[in-house]
Structure formats: structure tokens, C-alpha cells
Amino acid sequence: MRVCIFGTGYVGLVTGTCLAEVGHEVLCIDVDAAKVEALNRGVVPIFEPGLAPMVASNRAEGRLRFSTDASAGIAHGEILFIAVGTPPDEDGSADLKYVLAVAATIGQHLQRPAVVVDKSTVPVGTADKVAAKIAEALAARGARIAFDVVSNPEFLKEGAAVEDCLRPDRIVIGTDSSAALETMKRLYAPFNRNHERIVAMDVRSAELTKYAANAMLATKISFMNEISRIAEEVGADVELVRKGIGSDPRIGWRFIYPGAGYGGSCFPKDVQALAKTALQHGVRTRLLDAVEAVNDAQKSHLFELMVRHYGSVSAIRGKTIALWGLAFKPDTDDMREASSQRLLDQLWDAGARVRAFDPEALGEAKRIYGERADLALCGSSAETLEAADTLVVITEWKQFRSPDFAALKQSLTDAVLFDGRNLYEPAEVEAAGLAYYGIGRGRSVRRA
């Protein structure tokens, strides 16, 4: 099938590449000429395991192309995906200006019937707005061309997006048109061979499903982070609590890992946008408000543990902090809403210096912070330890999981480790002579 995808960001690029991988002819459109030119040279702007070689192979075979020519994309595609950004507006609602701009462009250039697919994460009712915008542009041309607007939300995890796209748990398709549903089923047939993955529903239910899924996962994380605070105060170990409740099939193991707070491009803005949508319809979302508040507080907790260890904020002045991890999660270079950003600001406000390493996010950190005298972006985890007083682990990259604790003890002037993702066993760390602070590990295991 011939597919046009508007937007070569995270969702658009992964979706377009995976559709090309299974044999569809995909033309990706973006207004950023520099990005398009780079993609046509084989330069992939994001880090996602497996994505770059797949882009290269499908470009070489002619199934995946990139252009800034919107009219060419619309002429090419029998299915037109809208996969542009929906950043949070000042009030927390999703900003639809890019989505609606693409809709207007489609209406201006559409010459034959097509299925228009909302792939971007958008509030309930957006499909109606997209349809109205396309119809308005068609009417301005005096054109009468049939089209359908379908909601097809993405469920991609950063760091596993290619796998999620090629082997999806479910494919949600929201439409009231049987013809559009059949078109989408043909598109996704290569992903749907082993068992039925398509979940068909009306458009508004599909739009809400995406937000509800992310809000549920964010709720599980914030719940465990709140339990971790209780564990610290009562002397319990939240990792044992996690194992105790995770074995309950009604709860399960996924998304109940306590840590320094969730971040990224989805959970923070989607929880806010869902709450804002509810408020616009007169529904007060007390639970979602609490989820967001718990997460916001959790992002400050590592610094609170540091203050507890050193006795005061002023005692941190002049310290050099080794920081392992900058991305909001492993296997990505994404620092949007990352807990590391909150910690960096707190450390700098306290007068500390930071030596940081991340396997993929150093370029993004340099873009965000530029050159600073109080920030050294290092080429390895070992380099961060040079002349460092303290180590903080904030992203659970695999290469951080088994350090030499005896060597850490020799490297760190203050011999203290703050484990923001509970990667280590407290007893093992303390046996090497380091003070250990984890998330919710209980007062008994935090001895300076």
C-alpha cells in the first residue's frame, strides 16, 4: 500500500520505517528541510535500538523516502498519517496547531479519496476537528472528495519502539466507517498474522484509550513511589514490598519499580492533557492530579536524600557529583522531563559541580545546557569519578548494573552512593565501605 506520513519525529519515523519494512511504500513528509536532508543521507536524528539500520535498508530498497513536498506526499498516499507533535500548551492541554496545520494542508491538496489517520496522541474530539479542517479547505477549493478520519493511537515504548511496532500487543483502530476499517486492516495485515491484534472501536473511544493507558501506567509508578516514601520512614525495604505485590497477577511486575520519577515525552504531558480534557467537560480528576503531584515531588527526592546525608544544603556547596545517566530511561537519548534535569538544577543551585555520563544522551545534554563551568560531560562512567565526592545513579543503563564497589570506595572522596533506580543491594554496597541511599530502602540500610 502507498502510505504518506506527516512528521519524522519519534512516532512518525518509527511507524514509517516499520511499515516500509513489511513491504509498504512509504513517503515521510517534514517541514524541517535540514532533517529531511539528513535522513536522505542516512542520518537518523534519534537513538532507538535497531532503527538506523532499518531506515538504511528500506531507503536502499526504495520503500522509504523523505521529502518536504506535502503535495507530493498527499498525491502518493492512499493512507495519510498525521504523526506530528502535540506539545503541552501553557495550561497543560495538548497543543493541536501542528495537527490541524497538516489537516488544512491535506484539504488544500487532496485529489482523490483517502483515509486520514491520527497517529499523534490527541485529546478526545480531535478527529472531528481534523475532519472539519479538511472539509473547510476542500470547500474553499470547491472540491468534493470523500475522506475518512481514523484514530490509530501509538503504543511505542522508547527503547523498544521498533519491536513494539513490528510485534504490537494490540492495534487500536477508531472509526465508524467499515470501508476505512477494512483499509486499515489491509495495512496492518503483516503485523496481525499470528493472532488477532486489532481492537476496533469508535473514534472517541480510541482517542481516550491512548490517554487512559498512559495514565494507568503513570499511576502505577507514582503509587510505588509513594509506597517507597512510606517504606523509608517505617524502616521497610520497598524492593521486598515490590516482590510481594508483583506476584499478585492482578497487579503484576510491570511498572511497579520505584525510582526518581517518570519522564519522557508521553506520561507527563498525557496525564496533564487527560486531566485538562476532563476539566473542560466538568470532571475533576483527583487521582490524576495526585499522580502528577507525586511524580513531581519524587523528582526532588534524590536531592533530599543528599541533604539528609550531608546535613544541610549549604554542605553540598563545592562538592563534585558524579552522575551516571541523563536520559529519562535507558535505550534512548531523550531527556524530555527527565529526572536528571531536576537534579542538575538543584545541585547547581546548591553550588555543586557535576561530572555526567550517559551512553546516548550526551549530545542532547550539550544542546540543552551548552558549555558550563559546573558541568563536565564525560566520555565514560569511569571518567565521571575523577575527583568526585559522590556518585548518583539516575538512569538504569545495563552498563551501570555491576560496578566495582571497592573501586568506587577508593574513587569517591565522601564514599557515598545515591541509587536513584535501586540497581544495587544495599548490603553489598555497604560491605565495600560506601554509604548507600536508595529509593524506599528503609532507614536501616542508610548508614553514613
Keywords:
alpha/beta, 448 residues, six-stranded parallel sheet, disordered C terminus, 14 strands
Would you write up a description of this structure?
This protein is α/β, with parallel strands linked by helices and 448 residues long. Helix content is 44%, strand content 13%. The chain has 18 helices and 14 strands. It has helices at residues 10-21, 33-40, 51-60, 70-76, 97-109, 126-141, 161-166, 178-188, 203-234, 238-246, 267-280, 286-298, 301-310, 339-349, 362-369, 381-384, 405-411, 426-431, and strands at 2-6, 25-29, 64-67, 79-82, 114-118, 147-151, 171-174, 198-201, 320-324, 353-357, 375-377, 390-393, 416-419, 435-437. A six-stranded parallel sheet has the order 3-2-1-4-5-6, sandwiched between helices. Strands 11-10-9-12-13-14 form a six-stranded parallel sheet. Strand 9, helix 14 and strand 10 (353-357) form a beta-alpha-beta unit. Helix 5 (97-109) packs parallel to helix 6 (126-141), helix 9 (203-234) packs across helix 12 and helix 11 (267-280) packs antiparallel against helix 12. The radius of gyration is 24 Å and the shape is elongated. The termini are far apart. Residues 444-448 have low confidence and may be disordered.
Short description:
With 448 residues, the protein is an alpha/beta fold. The chain has helices at residues 10-21, 33-40, 51-60, 70-76, 97-109, 126-141, 161-166, 178-188, 203-234, 238-246, 267-280, 286-298, 301-310, 339-349, 362-369, 381-384, 405-411, 426-431, and strands spanning 2-6, 25-29, 64-67, 79-82, 114-118, 147-151, 171-174, 198-201, 320-324, 353-357, 375-377, 390-393, 416-419, 435-437.
